[in-house]
Write a structure and sequence with these properties.
The complex is a heterodimer of chains A (268) and B (111).
Chain A: E1 3-9, H1 15-22, H2 27-43, E2 47-52, E3 61-63, E4 68-70, E5 90-92, H3 95-107, E6 112-114, H4 121-130, E7 135-140, H5 146-162, E8 166-170, H6 192-206, H7 218-224, H8 231-240, E9 245-253, E10 257-264
Chain B: E1 11-14, E2 19-26, E3 31-39, E4 45-51, E5 54-61, E6 66-69, E7 72-75, E8 80-83, H1 86-96
The chains are: A alpha/beta (268), B mainly beta (111).
């Protein structure tokens, strides 16, 4: 019987790949390196289920069941104002587990299927910085309601347990995500509403109070504009049985973005 | 609309107008601009093709309606081939399958 070993919520900004490659000190890069070490050396994971916050289908939940995945560059490239160098990533897939996730989701009443998609930067950026070498199953985060995303998380866990895999779940995302307010000067104060939002979400997640996420003041949520509406955390709630998160790293940066890294145990 | 040259790619996402834009050329060398202006509930897109500054066609684009080639792609419904670089074509392909890129023109909300 397979096991979902651990889940992680991590940042996915394309800048992380550039800082990792250039050896620029960054706490989020350090946190990703440590997660990668844990996945390789302690958990011995066979496969990583990577839930990109940028794969936002409306119609339902999808996996890429490919034998092999290549990346595509869905972020601005240089010489654009906030562009990055082009990066790429390739990994073996796990068709059997991918299709098992679809079956489990359908059995739980979700509209689910498969698509050939590849790896967008929301998935490959943190995975690349982690320096892992396991198989990858890309899955959607969607724009579906929270209650369906919760079930999607459950479906992922059930599919892993029906398989023979040692799996980890990585659901990247940012807390505050106001790219329109970005300042490149790090001395600029972090957006007040962003700080307030980030601190509230961190308190809720570390206390395991996922159900209160949907009750956050809508005006505060609008001001923070969290990536994928915080669906990655709801999916993790479904997959882990609502286990509280351990905050590994947090920083608000460039006036606009809250990078938080959590890990989560998985309820048996 | 900001100028194409500042983006460093021929496919961008404008989060202010909530639309994606691809710039390329047709086989006979005319400038082509393909806009995906709305993602529908079934993940198809309302689209418009502008060739040579003339709005040619409005249509509904589904991911399976595009054939990818080495030098661009063919829109099957319109029987039009668009020549574009592979990086932009791959980003466009991802968008038709549900991707929301980091916006080239950011706004106060996504997608």
């Amino acid at each position: 019987m397979g096991k979902l070993l651990k889940a992680y919520f991590v940042p996915n900004g394309s800048y992380l790949m550039q800082e990792d490659e250039d050896g620029i000190p960054d706490p989020s890069v350090d946190a990703l390196h440590e997660i990668g070490r844990e996945i390789r050396e302690e958990l011995n994971a066979d496969v990583m289920i990577a839930v990109s916050p940028h794969w936002q289908t409306k119609s339902g939940f999808y996996v890429d069941p490919g034998q092999y995945h290549t990346s595509f560059t869905d972020y601005p490239l240089l010489p654009a104002k906030w562009g990055r160098r082009p990066f790429s990533y390739e990994a073996d897939g796990d068709p059997e587990l991918a299709l098992g996730i679809v079956e489990a989701a359908k059995a739980l009443g979700l509209n689910a299927g498969s698509k050939t998609y590849g790896l967008d930067h929301g998935a490959f950026c943190p995975v690349k910085v982690m320096h892992v070498n396991c198989k990858i199953v890309p899955v959607t985060i969607t724009q579906r309601p929270f209650k369906e995303c919760l079930v999607w998380g459950r479906a992922i866990k059930e599919a892993v347990e029906k398989s023979s895999r040692r799996a980890v779940l990585v659901a990247p995302g940012n807390l505050t995500h106001r790219l329109d307010l970005r300042h490149d000067n790090e001395a600029e104060a972090y957006l007040d509403q962003g700080k307030k939002f980030d601190e509230l979400v961190i308190d809720l997640i570390t206390a395991g109070k996922f159900d209160e996420i949907e009750r956050i003041d809508p005006a505060l949520v609008k001001a923070a504009a969290p990536e994928a509406g915080l669906r990655p955390l709801i999916l993790i709630q479904g997959a882990t049985g609502g286990q509280p998160g351990k905050l590994l790293c947090y920083h608000g940066m460039k006036n606009s973005v809250g990078d938080a890294t959590f890990d989560f145990a998985v309820q048996a | 609309m900001a100028e194409r040259e500042q983006f460093g790619a021929d496919f961008i996402y404008d989060a202010k107008q909530k639309k994606a834009i691809l710039w390329g050329k047709t086989e006979n060398g005319a400038e082509a601009q393909l806009e995906l202006i709305r993602r529908n509930e079934d993940d198809s897109h309302d689209a418009v093709l502008i060739v040579g500054n003339k709005e040619n066609d409005k249509f509904v684009l589904r991911e399976e309606d595009v054939e990818y080639l080495n030098d661009g792609f063919r829109l099957k419904q319109l029987a039009v081939k668009i020549l574009v670089d592979q990086v932009s074509a791959a980003k466009f392909r991802g968008f038709t399958k549900g991707n929301i890129p980091t916006p080239d023109i950011p706004s106060d909300s996504l997608p």
